[in-house]
Each structure stands twice: as structure tokens, then as C-alpha cells.
Amino acid sequence: MKTLLKENNTISIKNDQTESEIECIVMNSKGEKVFSEIIKGDAIISFESKPGEGIIKLVLSNGKHDAMIIINGDELPEE
Fold first, then answer.
1. Would you say 69 and 57 are in contact if contact means Cβ atoms under 8 Å apart?
2. Which residues, listed in sequence order, are joined to residue 48 by a DSSP beta bridge?
3. 3-state secondary structure of 75
4. What is the pLDDT of residues 24-77, one digit of tens each?
5. Is the pLDDT of residue 18 over 80?
6. Looking at residue 79, what is its pLDDT?
7. How many angstroms separate the most distant Cα atoms in the chain?
8. Could you please report the per-residue DSSP string of 20-71?
9. How far apart are the first and last CA of the chain?
10. Which one has a higher pLDDT value, 18 or 42?
11. Would the pLDDT of 20 be above 90?
């Protein structure tokens, strides 16, 4: 996914499938990796980068996935 990165970024993931992993990889406009993390279940991750265009890749493990992703938006709602 292409996105506009800010100096301080937040990615919120609500993943109802707690056994499945999602690897979140963020790259800048030059294709350089800025951030990477493997997530299970719900997560709010923050990272810094230079402002500008970027790409977020989500690599899904085998299994079921039912996830909602918010980039630089509000945090996950309370249930």
C-alpha cells in the first residue's frame, strides 16, 4: 500500500485471529526499510521516519486473517 509517511507514524491493527501472524514492513520512497515488526493479535505500533511517500507491506502467515488496519489515524476502538 502506498501511503504518506509523517515524522511520527502509527499503525493500528485489529486482528481477530490471534494465532495468525502479520509482518508489517514499512519502506521509504527509495525502497529502504524504515520499520519492520511481526504482530499477533491486536497491536498499535509507532515509528519515526522522514516525511514523504512510503510503502507499507503486510505479509500474512498461513491461516485465517480478519484484520482492520488504520494508518496514522485513531487508535483501535475499545470493545
1. no
2. 8
3. coil
4. 999 999 999 999 999 988 999 999 999 999 999 999 888 787 888 888 885 545
5. no
6. 47
7. 39
8. SEEEEEEEETTS-EEEEEEEESSEEEEEE--SEEEEEEEEEPSS---EEEEE
9. 27
10. 42
11. no
Cα separations (Å) of 37 from 40, 47, 56?
10, 11, 12
Q: Give the span between the Cα atoms of 60 and 26, in whole angstroms.
A: 15
Task: Find cell 493479535 and name the residue.
Answer: 41
DSSP 11-27: EEEEES-TTSEEEEEEE
Burial class (CB in 10 A: 0-12, 13-18, 19+), 25: middle
Name, in order, each residue with C-beta under 8 angstroms of 6's C-beta and a sequence gap of 6 or more.
49, 51, 72
pTM, two decimals, is 0.80
Residue located via cell numbers 485513531: 74
Cβ–Cβ under 8 Å, residues 51 and 5: yes
